[in-house]
Fold this protein.
Amino acid sequence: QVQLQESGPGLVKPSGTLSLTCVVSGGSISSSHWWSWVRQSPGKGLEWIAEISHTGSTYYNPSLENRATISIDKSTNQLSLRLTSVIDADTAVYYCVREQWLDIWGQGTMVTVSS
Amino acid sequence: DIVMTQSPATLSVSPGDRATLSCRASQSVINYLAWYQQKPGQAPRLLIYGASTRATGVPARFSGSGSGTDFTLTISSLQSEDFAVYYCQHYYYWPRTFGRGTKLEMK
């Protein structure tokens, strides 16, 4: 079955850029699915970050103020997220997820923003 | 943005009892509503989508209902493994938003 595995830097300095990847295994990222990033700050609830459709259309949470970029690499079957100008509030567990109704989740990768 | 309001914030229920969790949207989301279960240290798990369709492998004791702005997740007979935090989320439009969650704790 389809599995998702996120990876990231673990620690990012304030004002820096966060880059995350998610490897999709057991299925093609090019199939007719949507892909998303969702995050969860320590002890807090869930926040939707961005979504990309199977046709390449992208959608972002306005709360991120144009700092996020979601993309797909069909050659490596990977989903990516880039978040610029990071601040303390970006400290969270970041999940990659399939579909608009978020049916398959990765295990998440913790990112801490700190100098 | 559509605001999702879940109630109660915490629900204390005994094993074997019925639990009813509520989710209200600030405007209609038709039936583009999903429910998730999250246990400590784990990723959320999809339980219900389309307001009432159980995801693959979800036990029949979980059921969802509602449309428009008011939705309910019902767990008919609580098992020990059901004590967790439950979130609702709409996917009617962008941005997708989640409720703040209902913590289901053992009484």
In short: Chain A touches chain B at residues 36, 45-48, 51, 59-63, 95, 100-108 (CB under 8 Å). The radius of gyration of chain A is 13 Å. The first strand of chain A starts at residue 3 and ends at 7. Residues 67 and 84 of chain A are 5 Å apart (CA to CA).
